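Before the break, one more example. Copy the sequence into your notebook; we will annotate it together after we see the structure.
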Amino acid sequence: MKHNIQVSNLFGLKFYLVSMQQALEIVEEFIINFEKPRMIFTPTAELIVRSNEDENLRNIYNSSDLLTVDSYVVYYAARLLGKDLPEPVSAARLMLNLLPIIHKKGYKIYLLGATEEVVNKVVENLKNHYPGINIVGWHNGYFDLENDDEIVNDIKEKKPNILFVAMSSPLKEKFISKNINKMRIPVSIGVGGTFDIIAGKCKLAPEWISRIGFEWFYRLCQEPRRLYRRYLITNTKFMYIFVKEVLKI
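Here is what the structure looks like once it is written out:
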């Protein structure tokens, strides 16, 4: 990597202290100077909690080629711990910022994840918004991870520059890490629920809501039944992890 990027241990993970612009440049560098397959993840507070409980998930994150802080909640916690973090680089905003570059440069992309209806809508919306965008393949995210050879082979044959994986965790992490060397493509990025945003199924939080650390609440308001228990438990556990980090100082 040409960029002299600082890596910092935080909440048991090795985060790259990058701005959004730096992250975009690094993704392009991985494509242009393709030497080996790269994987990128952006853990939220919830996934930091999970990685503290799941050694396999933690190892995947710590072996990734770019690991960024996803939300302002984690960003502010990191700053309070004295970490010189430029800004959060979330999965959704990373993908949305990459799309104009992908369109302009003609990079090839493959979309994997969400339901059949959602991923088809994503393809339709991207083609309408970015005429001529080079989408070489897509597939829903509902398949057996133990029998994924057909999908892996399809991705390998289509030779995308970037694979966007919009599956829940730890499925997207397991799929990418398990198959990264088989697929032999420059960049694989875990983008969680980003396909739902592009498909119009849910909305991305406005920047000001993200900045005050309430992006999780904005999402909760859109899907209360599905998310309330997750956020109630996760936020409590994340506060515990944060306090443990404070006591180390």
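Strands lie at 7-10, 13-16, 38-41, 66-67, 109-113, 135-139, 162-166, 187-190. The radius of gyration is 17 Å. Try to locate both features in your own notes.
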